[in-house]
Fold each of these.
Amino acid sequence: MSTADTSEREHGGDDIVAAEYVLGVLPSEERGTAARRIDAEPGFARLVDSWEVRFAPMASAYEPVDPPASVKPAIDRRLAGAAAPAAARPGMWASLAFWRGLAVAALAALALWIVVPYVIAPEQQPQQLRLVASLAPHDSDVHYFVVFDARTADVGLSHVTGARADGRDFELWLIEGDKAPESIGVIPVGASVHLAVSQALVDRFSSGAVLAISMEPAGGSPTGEPTGPVVASGDLKTI
Amino acid sequence: MTPQDITKLIVRTSMRDRSAFDLLYRQTSAKLFGVCLRVLNDRAEAEEALQEVFVKIWTKADRFAVSDLSPISWLVAIARNHAIDRIRARRQRTAELDEALEVADPQPGPEAQAVAAGENERIYRCLDELETDRAAAVRGAYLKGESYAELAERHAVPLNTMRTWLRRSLMKLRECLER
C-alpha cells in the first residue's frame, strides 16, 4: 500500500472522495480522476450513487427556469449529427424486441458490476456458477435484476422499479422450457433482497431458463402455481 | 407527471425513442436549466450546458437502470455534475464575476424556503447537527458547485484546513444518515 493510500484511508477513504465528487468541491484534476474511476470501477460508482441519493433532497432548492426556445432545436441539431433518425414506432413500447434490447443493455451494465470482483478473484470455478437475469416489465413497471449463485444456493434480487399493489406480493418462478413454473419464493420487500434456493431447485437453474415474477395474494400463490398476472420476466444468462 | 412517468420516458429514451426524449425535455428542462443557471451564474453558458446535458441524457439514458436515484434526481445529478465540470474548467477566468454575484445572492432566498419545506428530510436534520458555518459550506458546495479553493477563501481559512473541515463534516453526515 502506498503512502497516498494510507493518508486517503485516514481521511475517510474512497467513500469520502465519492462524497467530495458529488458535492463538487474537488479541484479540476482530482474531479477528472474521480470521474474516470466512476466509469472504470463499479464499486466506486456505487459509492458515488449512494452520496447522490443522500444529497438529492437538497436539489429541491433549485428553482425551475424555462430555457429559451432556441435550446431544443440546438439539441436536435447536435443529435442529428450523432445519431440516426428516430427509430421509434407506434407499439414499440410493447414489443418484445424492445424489452429484449433493454434487458441486454441493463445486463451489460450489471454484468460489469458483478464480473469485476470475479476477474480479480484467482480461482474461478467452471461454468454456470453464477447466472444473471434482467426481469423486464410486462404491462407493468416492475423491473428486477437477479443474480443466482449456485455455490451459496442464493438468489439476489435488486429492485429497479415497480411497486406491489396493496395486500399483494411478488412471487418469483423458475420456468424450464415447457415445464410448469416452479416457485422459488415470495420476494421480500426491499431494494436489495435475497431468497434461499432449495437444493432440488439449484440444479434446475441453467442458462436459457426463464425467471418470471407474478403478482400474488399476500404470502404467495395459494395453489403452488402462478395465479396472478406475470409482471416481469427474463432469461437467465451465464456471466 | 409522476416519477414513474419520468422513468418510462428515460427508459424509452435509452431505446432511442425520440418522441419520448422530446417529452422528457418538455417535462424536465426547466428544472435542469435552473440547476445549470445556479451553478454557472451565466445565462449563455447555462444554455450551452443545458444542450450538452440533454445530449448526455440521450446517450447515457441506459445507465439510469443501475442507479438508486429517483428519475428526476438522476437527471439533476447529470446536470449538476456537468455544470460543475464546466465551472471547474473556467474557474480562474471568472473568479471575480462569481464573487460579485456571490454578494448579490439574497440571504433567505428560495433555498431557505425549500429547506423549510423539506425539513423532514434526513439530510437537513443531519446538516443541523453540524456547526452552522460547516453546514453552510456543504450547502453552498452542493447548490453552487463551489470548490475547496472558493470555500477556503470565503471562510478565510487555508485550503488544507477547509478540506479537513469538510471531510470531517462529510464523515459526521454519513454517521448521522446511517443512524
Amino acid sequence: MTGNFNDATSIYLQIAAMLEDDILRGVLLEQERVPSTNELARAYSINPATAAKGINLLVEEGILYKKRGIGMFVAQGAHDKIIAKRKDAFYETYVTSLVREARALGLTKEELKAMIERAQQ
Amino acid sequence: MEQTLQASHLVKRYGKKEVLHDVSLTIEPGVIYGLIGRNGAGKTTLLSILTAQNTHDAGTVTYGGQPVWENEKALADLCFSRELSGQILFGQNTYKVKDYLLAASMYYPRWDKAYADQLVQRFGLDVKKKICKLSKGMMSMVTIVLALASRAPITILDEPVAGLDVVAREDFYKILLDDYTETGRTFVISTHIIEEAANVFEKVIILNNGQIAAVENTEDFVASFSFVSGREEDVDAVTAGHEVLHTERMGRQKGVAVRAARAVMERAAAGRDVDISPVSLQKAFVYLTGEEAHHETA
Amino acid sequence: MKLLKFNRNALAQLFLLLVGFQVFFSVLNMLGDRSQEYKAGYMTSVGGLYLLLFPLIMMTSFAGISVHISLTMGGLRRALGWQLAALNVICCAVVCASQWGSMWVLSRMFGSDSPVFLARFPRLAMLASAGTLVLGGLGLWMGLCAQRWGGKALALCALAELVVAGGVITWFVISFLKGGAAGDILAWLLAPRASAASLAAVAAGCAAVAALLHLASNCLLKKAVVRV
C-alpha cells in the first residue's frame, strides 16, 4: 500500500483499490487477515469511517469476508474476482478515454491498432 | 452514556449586528466533525454558545434534551479548548502551562494526567513557562494537550493547528486518530487548514456569514461538485440546468465549477470534448464562500 | 474549592507583599525621629491604610482571570459566585494575618522592643482588616464588569479606583494634619483604645457594604461570558 491519496476519486475507493492491488500482487493472500479499519485509519491518517466504507465495499463484492470478533479476511477466489471485476471496468477506465483521446488527436483506427500491437511486443 | 448536543434556531447579536442567523446543528456521538468557515463567519461564537460560555438571543442549545446553560452534567461531558493568547483581559497572561494543566485536572472529571504528561513530553513543552512567553505553535500544543487529555465525550478544538509547522500538524492528526480509534469520542475541530484535515473529518460543517451552508459526510460533499472545462459552447451545454459556483475564462476556453456529481456531468458530456475533474474540499469551500459566490444556472 | 486551589500562589504572594510593605514602613518610621513617636506612629499606620489597595487590585485580577479560566473549562457561575466571596474573605484574613506577620518580623529584627504599629490603633487596624472586604468586593465588581466591557475599560476603571481610593486616604491624612472634619474621623480611628463595641461596629459596617457589593456582582456573574 502506498498511502498517497490523490483527489481524483473518493478516498474509500482508493482504499478499496489499494487492498485489491495488494491481493493481486500477493501481498495479501487468500484467507489472510487484512488490516482493520482502525489500523488503516492510523496508518494513513484518515477517518476510520472512510476506511470502513472501503472495506465494506469489498465485502459486498465478495472479495473480503468478516469473521465475527476477529476481523476481515481475504475471501477464497478473491484474486480471480478482482481480475474479473477489473476486466469489466477496463473498458470504462482505459478504453473509452483512449479512444476519445485518439479521436481528439485525429488518429485513424489503423494507426491506433499499430500502436497497440507495438506496445504488446 | 454520551448524548446528543443540539443547537436549534440559534440567533446571536452583538449590538445591532446579527452574527448567527437561525443556526441549527446536531452533533452526533462518535463522529469527527470539521467546522470550516471564513474569518468572522461565527465559528468561535457558535462553539462558545454550544458550550455555555456565551449567551444567545434566540433558540436553544441542549445536551441530552436539557439546556446546557449552567448544567453541571452537560458541562462535565463537554470540553471546548479555545485558542490561547498571550494577552488576557487587561494584561499579559502570566499564568504558566502547569497552571492550566492544574485547572484542567480540577474542572474536567475524566482528566487523564498520564496522557497529558505523555503529550507534554511528546510536544517538548516546558510546563513552567508562562503563556505570554510561548510561541504560537506552543500555545496550540497546549490547547491540544488540554483537549485530548480532558477525555471529554464531546471535545471541541478551535484552530488547534494554528502556528504548527507541517510536521507538527501531521503529528496532530496521528495523535487525534490514535485517540479516536481508541475511545470513539466525538470531536469538533474548527480549522483553516482544510485540505490536509479533510481526510480526518467524517463530516464537515460549513459556516458562512453566520449561517450553516452544509453539514454532510465529507466525501459525499466533495463528490457532489465537478469542474468542467473546454470550449465555451461545450461547457455551457454540458452544465446547463446545474448550479454554477465559479467561472474561469481564458480566451475561448471556459472552466466552470458546478454543483453536480462527475458521473452526472460525464453522462451530459457524452461525445463532447470537455474535461471533467474533481473539486477538492478546499476549492469547494472557496467557491461556496468566496467573494464571487453567486448562484446561477448556466 | 477549585478557585482557591487555583489561586493559592497568588494569595501567598499577597501575604508576603503586605508583610514586606508594612515592615518597610515601620522600619522607615523607626529610622526617623523617635521623639515624634505619635506622629511617626500614625504615618506608619496610615501607610498601612494604603495596603488596602492591594486586595482591590488582587480581587480585580482574580475576578477577571479566574472567572475566564473557570468558564472556559466548564465551571458553573453559581459555584463561582460562592468561591469568589470565599476568596474575598480569605483576602481579608490575609490582610489581618499580614499585620501579625509584620509585627512578628519586626520583633525578631529589633528584639522585644515593640515598634509602633497598627496594633497600637485598634480601630484603624480593624478598618484595614475588614475594609479589605469592601475594596475586595469592589475589585470583584470591576473584574466581572470586564467580562462585559473588555480589558481596556477594566484597566481604566481600576486606575480610576486606585486614584479615588488613594485620593480619599490622602485627603483624610491631610485633613488630620491640618485639622478638619475628615481629620476628626481619622483621629477617632487613631484612638489608642477602642471599645469592643466600636470595633464590632467598624467590622459590621465593612461586612454590610461588602455583602451588598457581592450581591451586585452576583447579578453580573449570572450572565458572565468568556470575553476573547
